Amino acid sequence: MAEKKTIIEKIWEDHVVHRDEGQPDLIYIDQHLVHEVTSPQAFEGLRLAGRKVRRPDLTFATMDHNVPTKDRENVKDEISAKQMDALKKNCADFGVKLADMFHPDQGIVHIIGPQLGLTQPGKTIVCGDSHTSTHGAFGALAFGIGTSEVEHVLATQTLYGDRPKTMNVKVNGPLGAGVTAKDLILAIIAKFGVKFGTGYVVEYTGEAVQSLSMEGRMTVCNMSIEGGARAGLISPDEKTVDFLTGRRYVPKEEEAFRAISEKWLSYATDEGAAYDKTIEIDATEIEPQVSWGTNPGMVVPISGATPSVDAVDNKDEITRALSYMDLTENQPITSIEIDHVFIGSCTNSRVPDLKNAAEIIKGKKVKDGIKAIVVPGSFLVKSEAEELGLDKIFKEAGFEWRDAGCSACLGMNDDIIPAGGRCASTSNRNFEGRQGNGARTHLVSPEMAAAAAIEGRFVDVRSYTTEEKIS
């Protein structure tokens, strides 16, 4: 009888190029995604060594971190301009495909990979960005790498790595009405901590995970890194196949597509396969979530409150977080007022994210004194959203409608939360200064962000009912 294997083991073993006892494996990389921030030194290393890009056909570049989301023709930040100019020159010199900030394929690298069909089950995918784990939603083994590793992949199309330990995060039961994929992953990190996945590649399983849309699965896998995991993924199924059907870099001919889709599905974890570790969470107990502190594990349900210092072991950490966030012990989450709203990032800037937020905001107004922006994840997402009229809904409510880019997720260009500002953000990190020096970030779902924009504070989005869904 054949050995039962997890998807993690199947993909890893399928990509080992060379193995020596006691040494990291050398694995083949199927897809290398590149952006302007972590690539300049890597390309310069190739240039100095007289090397070429080994497989330019398996390399795809875009501009996302530094691109302005308004007035794109006028890049005010000199460093941003230099990094984007360097990427343009490097891609031209080394024959790498580039979607620059005026190209119709431009967008956040973790948005455009799936929408173009570059992301596929069974692939190894790397990028000089920690949130490469997003692509794991398709049953790919995808992880972020450093600049020296970017150079190694460019030169050899391979990478050294230790065979990962496997973890199953099993989500039992269904999510309740009004509870989203963002709430699920925030609840997982809140329960198990920001280091629960250290040393592991995590596979998410269970009823709630299987019921998620592909966009919801991307949200969950995106934030695996916030739990310390090397990567996160979900076994492919028919939803995966349906999403990829017709994508540009996926075979179009019927027989070829049938063959590749069968191969994709074969990577799914075998029933009865053993993991190195399994942890479980009950989806039925999860409410809409809000982060209150300065890491993604400092999260409570909307019905909850900030912690009591006396009730925790890490007193110094909690005290510092409360101080930085200008909150008090045992403060109800619904009492926290905000003055900024950001809907965007590689976590939550796809069409369904924007549509769900628009359904909350439709016919209402952003509360006076709040600056609210929507930043689509790609040029294509923006175009599709505008075809649905979402831009009009947001603008009529008082939101700014921007061009695609990473934007306020990491406080780039003009999209910075000022010191002391408090932002309801659909991004993935709430570290001190992440969205601007002295800025205070609260991680929420798009729906929760939209409701906060209306109310000027955090409220349970389940109290909102939408009479008409946007089709």
Automatic annotation (TrEMBL):
Protein family (similarity comment): Belongs to the aconitase/IPM isomerase family. LeuC type 1 subfamily.
Reactions catalysed according to its record: (2R,3S)-3-isopropylmalate = (2S)-2-isopropylmalate; citrate = D-threo-isocitrate
Pathway(s) where this gene product acts: Amino-acid biosynthesis; L-leucine biosynthesis; L-leucine from 3-methyl-2-oxobutanoate: step 2/4
Needed cofactors: [4Fe-4S] cluster
Limits of the Aconitase/3-isopropylmalate dehydratase large subunit alpha/beta/alpha domain: 9-456
Positions bound to [4Fe-4S] cluster: C346, C406, C409
GO biological process, one term: L-leucine biosynthetic process
Organism: Lacicoccus qingdaonensis
Cited CDD domains: IPMI (cd01583)
Protein's recorded name: 3-isopropylmalate dehydratase large subunit
Pfam families named in the record: Aconitase
Gene designation: leuC
PANTHER family for the chain: 3-ISOPROPYLMALATE DEHYDRATASE, HOMOACONITASE, MITOCHONDRIAL-RELATED
Subunit structure: Heterodimer of LeuC and LeuD.
EC annotation from Swiss-Prot or TrEMBL: 4.2.1.33
Cofactor binding, per record: Binds 1 [4Fe-4S] cluster per subunit.
Molecular functions per Gene Ontology: 3-isopropylmalate dehydratase activity; 4 iron, 4 sulfur cluster binding; aconitate hydratase activity; metal ion binding
Broad EC category: lyase
UniProt keyword terms in alphabetical order: 4Fe-4S, Amino-acid biosynthesis, Branched-chain amino acid biosynthesis, Iron, Iron-sulfur, Leucine biosynthesis, Lyase, Metal-binding
Functional summary from the UniProt entry: Catalyzes the isomerization between 2-isopropylmalate and 3-isopropylmalate, via the formation of 2-isopropylmaleate.
